[in-house]
Amino acid sequence: MKIYVLRHCTTEYSLKKIYCGKTDIPLSEEGRVEAERLGASLKDSGIDIVFTSPLLRARETAETVAAGLPIVCDERLAERDFGDFEQTSVAREDGKKYRFSFALRYPNGESYLDVAARIGSFLGELKEKYADKTPLLVSHGSACRVLRAYLLPMTDEEFYAYSQPNGAVEEYEL
Predict the structure, then answer these.
(1) In order along the chain (174 residues), what is the average pLDDT of each group of 10 residues?
(2) Which one of the listed residues 60, 79, 110, 140 is annotated catalytic?
(3) Fewer CB atoms inside 10 A, N or C side of the chain?
(4) Is 79 assigned a catalytic role?
(5) What pLDDT does 116 receive?
(6) SS3 for 12?
(7) 55 backbone dihedrals φ, ψ, rounded to 5°
(8) How far apart, in whole angstroms, are the C-alpha atoms of residue 115 and residue 104?
(9) On the CB side of 21, how many CA atoms lie within 13 Å of its CA?
(10) For this structure, is 140 an active site residue?
(11) Domains of the chain
């Protein structure tokens, strides 16, 4: 089963390199333009259903790209909860131990292990209920990293080095 994974388009927080997990912000003007271009480029891809995180930046991306296709919101595609680090700089030195650990949760937030549990559940259901479809999944940086790890063999170093850019689409086999 072919699936497409799209990291939501650009936001002001993306540009400023600020932790943005559960903070619900819209796309920037640049992000809206990116989404319009993506919609046009994906028109003939065979995508017939769109799944999106319920967070506004992902929903806006999905609605623009979908061009009339059915859209399903699923909480399991939401961004990692960065807890006490929300709305602070990703350059914080004290954040590295959480960013580069699979099991360590951000204070009052989530770990990659938590995100992996959500993503694994979602992919299992996707394969079971939508095997005859070609879906587009619109999600976030941490969730896209975990999705990639489920779908491609990766070392720990490759996992932490990988970052799907905003507005980028990856194609996988599930």
Answers:
(1) 98 96 97 96 94 98 95 98 97 94 97 98 98 97 97 95 97 96
(2) 79
(3) N
(4) yes
(5) 98
(6) helix
(7) -70, 140
(8) 12
(9) 22
(10) no
(11) 2-173 (3.40.50.1240)
Q: Indicate the DSSP class of residue 165.
A: P
* Angle at 156 (CA atoms; ends 96, 170), nearest 5 degrees: 95
From CA 10, how far away is CA 127, in angstroms rounded?
A: 29
Alpha-carbon distance 162 to 156, whole Å?
A: 10
Model confidence pTM above 0.90: yes
Distance CA 34, CA 42 (A): 12
pLDDT of the residue at 101: 94
Q: What pLDDT, on the 0 to 100 scale, is given for residue 67? A: 85
The two tokens of residue 148 are 């990639």
Of 140, 133, 90, 84, residue with least CA distance to 107: 84
- Catalytic member of 8, 34, 60, 110: 8
User: How far, in Å, CA of 26 to CA of 167, rounded?
Assistant: 14
Q: Residue 154 has what pLDDT?
A: 95
